[in-house]
Amino acid sequence: GGGHRASANALRDAFDTLYPNQFECDIVDIYTEYGPFWPYDDYVRCYKIMAEYSFLWEAFYNFGTTPFGLWLNELLLEVKEETFCFDSFKDCMTRNTQFTDQTKGKRADMVISVHPLCQDLPLKILNYIDSEGESREEGRTTPFATVVTDLGGAHPTWFNPGVDKCFVPSDVLYQCACDRQVTSNQLVLHGLPIRKGFWADDSLSASSMTDDAEYENDDMNNRIKTSQREALRSELGLDLSSPAVLVVGGGDGMGGIVETAKCLGAKLAGGDDNDYQMVVVCGNNKVAQEELSKMNWSSGEVGDGTDIAGGRRKGINVVINGFVDNMDEWMRSCDVIVTKAGPGTIAEASICGLPCMMSSFLPGQEAGNIPYVENAAFGKYSGDPRIISETVFNWLQNPEMLSNMKDAALKVSRPTATLDIARDLAEMAFTAKKHNKK
């Protein structure tokens, strides 16, 4: 999934910001690049198929969390993955870096996992490598850390008591890790690693920043002030004062984004005499982007027979985007977000103080994100586009409610998480390197 890659990229950016020219990060999709044959080398496509037909994913995921499913997973790991994947994955774990003359020809000094299927076997391989082939169960000296990229729920395979550190984003997952025999000495709760545009400026000290990084972060901090919001909206082509709703479906544009946008557009255009605006980010879903871009949002209907206030031709400004690399700017320009209940988007929205209307979720790990948001009082869930539209419209009619939800979102936000995690990981690496020199 794209969220795992985004978290890895965020940590790389944090290392570059905090420790310029001191770390080289080699980000690898171990199954796609080193899986020996199907299905190991085709997990991405298989995941997308199951995500599209979510009942398949729900059955697969829930079975894998049962005691029998976990036992079967360990058995398959021993019999199949160690037989078929061990050597090819070992090639990955011993791959030579090619970054600089200083690091060329060296394998990694530390391994960080950001995926639930990258604990058990990589740990066994490191045991084997560091013990010079004597054992797969002990002998590891290479630091290994897990950074969990789920939020309100997570698969048990995330949590392995053999790691040095396990970074979790929430109290719920802290307890999940404890239930899997990961100790409090191994656990660290900082939050979810998120993209650089969402980092907080107070997490960067002057001593750890370059001049460029300090300037960029101060600029971001200034832009989120109320007085700067109009300038940001102007840059993005949005009206300066009309309420704005952001509709997203994740990097792959999943989550019924077309029907949700149509219904919400109709409601905003015909709900009252006020003007509204809607921004739709379709991600890599080019079909959805093309369909929504062809619609005449002021024509009187949205293409499915839904009338817009008897043909009223004013009241809504609609912007349709594909994949964007400035999501932080779009979030800070809008008043509400409608989103699939993905952990990264929820964490980023909370940092922006953005109330969340969740429109879909992937059964299993994303199911826990719904009570996470609802219990924190900064959002609701419905899979019905009409209920979504009514709920969002009602929020926009109640400024006091929106303000309270914004405060609730900010209260649970962890804008320093990425840099906090990177600092701890760096300390692990520095300590191990000092120890190895001795």
Walkthrough of the structure:
It is built from 17 helices and 10 strands. Strands 7-6-5-8-9-10 form a 6-stranded parallel β-sheet, with helices on both faces. Strand 1, helix 6 and strand 2 form a beta-alpha-beta unit. About 5% of the residues have low confidence.
What attributes does this structure have?
6-stranded parallel sheet, 438 residues, 4-stranded parallel sheet, 10% strand, 10 strands, 47% helix, 17 helices, alpha/beta
Write the layout of secondary structure elements.
Layout: H1 2-18, H2 30-34, H3 43-52, H4 54-65, H5 67-93, E1 111-113, H6 120-130, E2 144-147, E3 165-168, H7 171-179, E4 187-189, H8 211-223, H9 226-236, E5 244-248, H10 257-270, E6 276-281, H11 286-293, E7 316-321, H12 327-333, E8 336-340, H13 343-351, E9 356-360, H14 369-375, E10 379-381, H15 385-397, H16 399-412, H17 417-437
Parallel strand pairs: 1-2, 2-3, 3-4, 5-6, 5-8, 6-7, 8-9, 9-10
Helix pairs in contact: 1-17, 3-4, 4-5, 5-6, 9-12, 10-11, 10-15
Put the structure in a nutshell.
This protein is an alpha/beta fold and 438 residues long. Helices cover 47% and strands 10% of the residues. Helix 4 (54-65) packs across helix 5.
